[in-house]
Specification:
Elements (H helix, E strand, L loop, with lengths): L1 H9 L2 H38 L2 H35 L1 H35 L5 H30 L4 E4 L2 E5 L1 H5 L4 H29 L5 H35 L1 H8 L5 E2 L3 E8 L2 E8 L2 H7 L5 E2 L14 H32 L6 H29 L2 E3 L3 E2 H4 L6 H36 L14 H8 L1
Antiparallel strand pairs: 1-2, 3-6, 4-5, 7-8
């Protein structure tokens, strides 16, 4: 046992585990930076357009929660920036002049979003309603463009382009070709849609719990519907985009696709396996659909699908069963969320109401956690599937990772830091919510809703008197 632990500590596993944990943690907060401003502005728009004070209160409170999550995400993102240089000197030393371009651009959009987040928060009760709403739109734009920049960096690792090498070093760089590589058009919309699904279903899930507890006031119903519709609209688009992306992977990274679909040998008329475990040349416990894999790849049952045996074992992704089950899990959850959204849409079309059945509200309350799991499974698939390459076809992971010792110590410290950040990101909004519930319960009649663009309720009573 002690010998195994020593091998794990001395190899590249601690560095890879630290980077993987950091990415898996930060990506959740990145989703809120990308999509939460849109959810806030939708509620804000409804409040101004329809004179709906409940929608305005929701927008105001959500903006405060967004600020807390944005701050936590800034800390976790800073940790990642240091890890790139400290843990992956082979990557940054050789390809940093190309790989670093998208990150530099993302930094610009991060500061733009931070600036306008502060302006938007300060504008409640101080700016005219529509001017205040417009002051929030740069947050949405910056979030989307920041997502493009970061995903472009990951896409570049999958499809490197836009540079020339001389004596093993990058001699010249074409920034546009780096950012808009062959994988960017597929990975970017997939990530953005995932972010909107995560935020939509997570926020809706909070209010679904309230509905399950019998709080059927307009505040909880609207708090559920606005973000739920965001997630529900994005779910079918994500399923379609996922199909396009999987087909792109089959052509751009065929060995990754082979591991995802448990295809060992290159052949035609390949069976699509739903679930299952590959062992000794056979797939067990899976449901096989003949010819479907070939049909999905090339729209023909006779399409040839490349197997992982076409390359030496040292150039194949590790753990194909993990990749396959992660991919299938992501697809299954995405499909279930799409069905959940369609269910509510069908009822809304004919009855204009939120489903009150336990069979709907419990899955709705769990949809946020499910969407996060699906996103993490997707990132696990794309990152582990690219192995053993850190830059596909050019740089092996073993040649990019740091040879320095002491990484297990930094891994432990990182886990502690992320534990504190997790407690902060959950605990602070929870305390805010408790305070808002207490405040709302103390109000009655005309004071039941605090108007974000009017005087506080007490002053409003004085002015009426």
């Amino acid at each position: 046992m002690s010998g195994s632990l020593l091998v794990l500590a001395e190899g590249d596993i601690p560095a890879r585990a630290q980077m993987g944990a950091s990415l898996g943690f930060h990506i959740i907060f990145a989703c809120f930076g990308i999509a939460f401003p849109t959810v806030v502005l939708i509620a804000h728009w409804l409040g101004i357009r329809r004179g709906d004070q409940v929608a305005l209160v929701l927008a105001q409170r959500w903006s405060r929660v967004a600020a807390v999550i944005f701050a936590v995400g800034a800390v976790s993102g800073t940790v990642l920036s240091y890890e790139l240089g400290l843990l992956w000197p082979g990557l940054m030393g050789r390809y940093g002049s190309a790989f670093g371009i998208p990150f530099a651009i993302e930094g610009i959009w991060f500061f733009v979003e931070a600036i306008f987040t502060a302006i938007y928060l300060y504008g409640w009760g101080r700016l005219p309603p529509w001017l205040h709403w417009w002051s929030g739109t740069p947050m949405v734009i910056a979030g989307l463009l920041g997502a493009l920049a970061v995903v472009a960096a990951n896409s570049w690792m999958n499809q490197p382009s836009g540079f020339t090498l001389q004596d093993g070093r990058v001699a010249s760089v074409d920034p546009w070709a780096v950012i808009f590589n062959r994988a960017t058009p597929f990975e970017t919309p997939h990530m953005i849609l995932a972010a909107y699904m995560v935020v939509g279903f997570v926020v809706a899930g909070v209010y679904a719990v309230g509905l399950l507890r019998g709080r059927w006031d307009r505040y909880h119903r609207l708090g559920f519907l606005v973000p739920f519709w965001v997630g529900a609209v994005c779910a079918p688009l994500q399923v379609l985009m996922g199909d396009v992306l999987a087909r792109a992977v089959a052509h751009q990274q065929p060995i990754k696709f082979a591991a995802m679909e448990l295809v060992a040998d290159t052949q035609r008329g390949v069976t699509e396996w739903l679930g299952g475990i590959y062992w000794n040349g056979e797939v067990y416990f899976g449901v096989g659909i003949p010819y479907l894999d070939s049909l999905l790849v090339g729209f023909s049952p006779n399409t040839e699908v490349i197997g992982w045996n076409s390359v030496p074992p040292q150039l194949r992704p590790p753990l194909p069963n993990l990749l396959h089950l992660s991919f299938d899990g992501m697809v299954a959850i995405g499909t279930a969320l799409m069905v959940l959204g369609a269910w509510q849409a069908w009822v809304w079309k004919f009855r204009r109401e939120v489903l009150s059945t336990w069979w709907f509200l419990v899955p709705a309350a769990l949809a946020g956690a499910a969407s996060i799991v699906a996103m993490e499974l997707g990132w696990l698939t794309t990152e582990v599937g690219r192995q053993p390459w850190v830059v596909y076809g050019l740089l092996l992971t073993r040649d990019a990772v740091t040879p320095a010792g002491g990484v297990p110590v930094t891994l432990a410290a990182t886990i502690v830091v992320y534990g504190v950040l997790t407690a902060t990101s959950i605990g602070v909004p929870w305390l805010m919510g408790r305070r808002w519930q207490t405040r709302d319960a103390a109000r009655t009649g005309a004071d039941s809703v605090q108007t974000p663009y009017g005087p506080p309720p007490a002053r409003a009573e004085e002015s009426r008197a």
